[in-house]
Amino acid sequence: MFNLTGLTTLKLPFYASSILKLSSIENVCVSMPDLASTPRLIVGGGSNLVVLEPEFDGVVLRPEIQCFKPVQTGDDVYLEVGAGHSWHHTVMQTLNEGWFGLENLALIPGWMGAAPVQNIGAYGVELKDHCLRVKLYDFEEQAVIELAASELAFGYRHSILKESPDRFLVLTVTLKLSTRPQPRVEYGAIIEELERQGLNPSSPLDVAKAVMSIRQAKLPDPDETPNVGSFFKNPVVRTAVADRLKAQFPEMPTYPDGEQTKIAAGWLIDHLGLKGHQIGGFSVHKRQALVLTNDGSGTADDLRALVALIRSSVKATFGLSLAVEPTEVGQLT
């Protein structure tokens, strides 16, 4: 078995029968037909993966494709990026090139290939806002295909790629960016940080700097403190339900969107006094209650117990169910 624990940011024990590194689309086309009936798991940056069973009896696919192909048409830039690129490095490279749109998504860990699976998002911007199409290997068709963004059924931290993790392997993502800056600074935290640092709200690079400062202040670096970022999704409920809860808990942050309202899961956990709560080697982070951290000694059972406590407490107090955001290998419950 190969020890792949180091490929994940949560650092739970992870062993696999084999690992296959994929450096090009041609490499994928040659290698994949032989794996049609083999259990497989795709691991990129490993920052959104919770390994609850230590041994995976199959092949781990490591998509390390590195293409970076921009095409400019007027003010629009269409950029095809390989699945193996670091997401954050891509964001910063586009800003340095004068291609704007991704600034609110700076410092999100992981690789490009995971971005459309999860429809990553932060501070009012989601990948779907800038995704044009995705090139995939389809294990059912045993062929390379392309799907337009409209075919991916993007939702809150969701896409059809997440629904069918055994069917599709992301090869490249084509982004639509612009040479005209149109910064999104609706979030109060961004405005406050821009003002605090004396940065320009009209500058996408300054917006990215503000976002990075906010994330660094609130979130632990996974290279130093093992974690997978936000462990729970923010509950999305009917606005009438949110209004009833808001009347009972006036300080609860809510984000209305028509007939539905998003509720801040971190606030729910914090309100219950669970920040810093520890079971075995796992803890609720002291600065951001959405993040669960491993001190290096944590086990899958420690994590299961902590997640069960958080979920049951939130359900008992607020009547809300918390869904897990990262991908699970094995079962939490």
Written overview of the protein:
The chain has 333 residues and is α+β, with helices and mostly antiparallel strands. The protein folds into 3 domains: 2-63, 2-Layer Sandwich (Uridine Diphospho-n-acetylenolpyruvylglucosamine Reductase, domain 2), CATH 3.30.43; 68-178, Uridine Diphospho-n-acetylenolpyruvylglucosamine Reductase, domain 3, CATH 3.30.465; 236-329, Uridine Diphospho-n-acetylenolpyruvylglucosamine Reductase, domain 1 (Alpha-Beta Complex), CATH 3.90.78. The protein has helices spanning 25-31, 87-97, 115-118, 160-163, 188-197, 204-218, 239-248, 265-271, 300-318; strands at 2-3, 15-22, 40-42, 49-51, 55-63, 68-73, 76-82, 121-122, 125-126, 131-138, 143-148, 168-178, 236-238, 254-257, 260-263, 278-279, 282-284, 292-294, 327-329. Strands 6-7-12-10-11 form a 5-stranded antiparallel β-sheet, with helices on one face. α5 crosses α6 (204-218).
Keywords:
single chain, 333 residues, alpha+beta, Uridine Diphospho-n-acetylenolpyruvylglucosamine Reductase, domain 2, Uridine Diphospho-n-acetylenolpyruvylglucosamine Reductase, domain 3, Uridine Diphospho-n-acetylenolpyruvylglucosamine Reductase, domain 1, 3 domains, five-stranded antiparallel beta sheet, four-stranded mixed beta sheet, 9 helices, 19 strands, 27% strand, globular
